[in-house]
């Protein structure tokens, strides 16, 4: 779970709880610690408390319980405008009655910066997001992507050390998202700022972040770098939530160190790696990534357990083939194979045998 | 794109635009037909009265309607201050007035002209009563000459005929008499004005026709059974003295006898003298000047009155200070409406802000409180203010009790401008709050948060970010409140005393008490123009697109 607090932590949540109505906890026991310069993404389904965490950090909501520290100082008692945290809102929140340049110079004006300094900084910020020519326009005269860049520039123009972004790319189309994802990471890296980024798009989370915090029901389910999150989910929620995943249910029949066998509900026996199970007889959900499933018998260990499968559907997707199988009673077992010259194309109705390396199949909580 | 390839053509070969218009036209027509009844209703019941009012404010045909011949006769006369009009004018006045007096229209004209020159009203009333006495001795002479003149049937036999080929329907008389009496007069069916009598005795024939029409249409009597008016006798006397009698009929002998008899009295008779004898004011040139000034069917007089000028025979002049009220009233209406609008902004803004930012339950409660006044009668609310504000009222009592004012120096909060401003601010407040609320409701809270996250204090965030976005609501509320208050009537009437009434109270007075509708219309028109001008100015300065009644 959450990493232990260390003295280099820049942003810290300690045992933070939040309730809006006094009946339900929207955030339950949140512990989080970020070093300076980190790009951390909060990923989770709708209503899992991501925005709430961000709002507590920004100072628009107060934690019901627990401490939030910025650079070692508790910020619970600092009013929002003194926190010096840049924020990018999901709906951009560009002031409609000001021009783009006025929007950008607003944070500088309230900091009593001189006119020439302001103009220089605004220009630099606009150039940074490649919007130098748009200073005189009103937000309503910009496209969604352009507004997003301006919102980003406005959050960065006063050089905050910490920037919060709440689903900043939510309303944009795929291509624009990808461009902006790249720009945001580049800027964050170049400026050395610490970023807390909220999204529900897992690709976005995986591609942009140093670490990802997966939220569910007010808790961080796993906090880990993207590769670890994908390859080593620590529970079935994370496994399901991140990437595509095949799940089979059964009971643990034997555990030997880093390997175990699971008897599926259909009666079949498979090999797995125990992650969240500790004793024989425990129910478990095993998870296998579609690209780790093998149906070429020669590539498996000689003594590996295999399952019988019937091909239901073969989908040609260009770079990969996606095959849907009936395995151990489920109809939605997916196998992905690379479109390589020697790759075998399965045909529907075909009976095959599938298997995997034990370490690719993770036995998680039921 | 059209210049390179020519207009785009639809499947049937017509230009696409033409085809599209054709297709749309039928739909538009159907839509239009659907709303047509409503449109007609709106035009008839809302737009038409406005134009009627605009028209009334310049329409002033009462003089030209009531005294049509006099007005024509006056064309040749110039007002110099001394010279009186000609005898023909007095003659025309006699016949016009006689007809008007019979139709009881002369007093209305008298009241109308009395707005301009005091005394005309009573002059007209007295003259109307005394017209029967004009030419008394002439009429007596005729009666003495032949007993036939006392027989109603004799007159009818002389002037009327049932033979269509020998008579006419007296069209010009009919037009004149109908105008003066302001109703459609006509001769009885199958009765005509005798051509022979009209040729020989034109004046008398005309007056008799008028008498006959009026008797038939208004009194619903048979002309042959009624004694003709004195005006008919006088007209006959004039005809008989004009020259040799050319009439040839059974009545010739009686007419000849009368001709001889009236020669004496008529020799010394003049309408001018007759009128001067009735009332010496008829010798006052300014009375005639007034009649002439207002003889045009259109006048700028009401508008001039409405800005404290008056139309005199010498041109427009400022009225004396002690009767000049309208400019003061307009000015007062303006500044008080602005004060009320401003107070509504001051009070309404925080309430609307609260409503927009509280949770729904509390906001609804406040909304109910805001709307509560709408559920009680305006009269009750205003009267309640009377109770609260009077010198021995609740507010003064509390102030005295607290010790803020002495018992001897209780504040005058009612029957003056203060009372009107307080009561009207209360009554019009919802019209400010509602548009403000709906605009504020549409301002996402994230703007304020964004401002604060950018380092703005609460006040800066409000003033630089929230307030500018709520300005359209202020605009809409102000326009509503200002326009409503500028035309407000009941509240100033009840709590305004004399120092707190508005121009609309004056308009109401002229509509219901003084019955000077023309002036009321002129005042209303000025009010309308002022409002439109302000609206235009607002559009130029703030922009009417910036007015939002809803989020
Ligand atoms: N102001 C509020 N008052 C009461 N409940 C709230 C408030 N804001 C959020 N909640 C509740 O708190 C929970 C978490 O909300 P939050 O906005 O943090 O979710 P989220 O993870 O940001 O979701 P999304 O991805 O949809 O934005 C939700 O169940 C929501 O209904
Ligand atoms: Mg959210």
Can you tell me about this structure?
The complex is a heterodimer of chains A (366) and B (551). Chain A is α+β, with helices and mostly antiparallel strands and 366 residues long. Helix content of chain A is 23%, strand content 34%. Chain A folds into two domains: 11-236, Rossmann fold (3-Layer(aba) Sandwich); 244-365, Beta Barrel (OB fold (Dihydrolipoamide Acetyltransferase, E2P)), CATH 2.40.50. In chain A, the strands form four sheets. In chain A, strands 6-7-8-3-9-10 form a six-stranded mixed sheet, with helices on both faces. In chain A, strands 11-12-13-19-14 form a five-stranded mixed β-barrel. In chain A, strands 2-1-4-5 form a four-stranded antiparallel sheet, covered by helices on one side. In chain A, α5 (174-191) links the parallel β7 and β8. In chain A, α2 (100-109) packs across α3, α2 (100-109) packs parallel to α4 and α3 (115-128) packs across α4. The longest helix of chain A has 18 residues, at 174-191. Chain B is mostly helical and 551 residues long. Helix content of chain B is 67%, strand content 3%. Chain B contains 27 helices and five strands. In chain B, the strands form two sheets. In chain B, strands 1-3-2 form a three-stranded antiparallel sheet. Chain B is elongated. At the A-B interface, β6 of A face α23 and α24 of B. The structure holds adenosine-5'-triphosphate and magnesium ion.
What is the topology?
The complex is a heterodimer of chains A (366) and B (551).
Chain A: E1 9-18, E2 27-35, E3 39-43, H1 50-58, E4 65-70, E5 73-74, E6 85-88, H2 100-109, H3 115-128, H4 144-156, E7 162-166, H5 174-191, E8 194-199, H6 202-208, E9 211-216, E10 219-224, H7 226-231, H8 236-241, E11 246-256, E12 259-264, E13 269-274, E14 283-288, E15 307-316, E16 320-327, E17 330-338, E18 351-354, E19 361-365
Parallel strand pairs in A: 3-8, 3-9, 6-7, 7-8, 13-19
Antiparallel strand pairs in A: 1-2, 1-4, 4-5, 9-10, 11-12, 11-14, 12-13, 14-19, 15-16, 15-18, 16-17
Helix pairs in contact in A: 2-3, 2-4, 3-4
Chain B: H1 2-5, H2 16-56, H3 62-66, H4 68-74, H5 87-102, H6 106-114, H7 120-130, H8 136-145, H9 152-159, E1 160-161, E2 167-168, H10 171-181, E3 192-194, H11 195-200, H12 202-219, H13 230-242, H14 252-267, H15 271-278, H16 285-293, H17 301-306, E4 309-312, E5 315-318, H18 326-357, H19 360-371, H20 378-389, H21 394-402, H22 417-441, H23 445-453, H24 458-486, H25 490-495, H26 503-512, H27 517-541
Antiparallel strand pairs in B: 1-3, 2-3, 4-5
The complex binds adenosine-5'-triphosphate and magnesium ion (MG).
Residues 50-51, 166 of chain A line the site of magnesium ion.
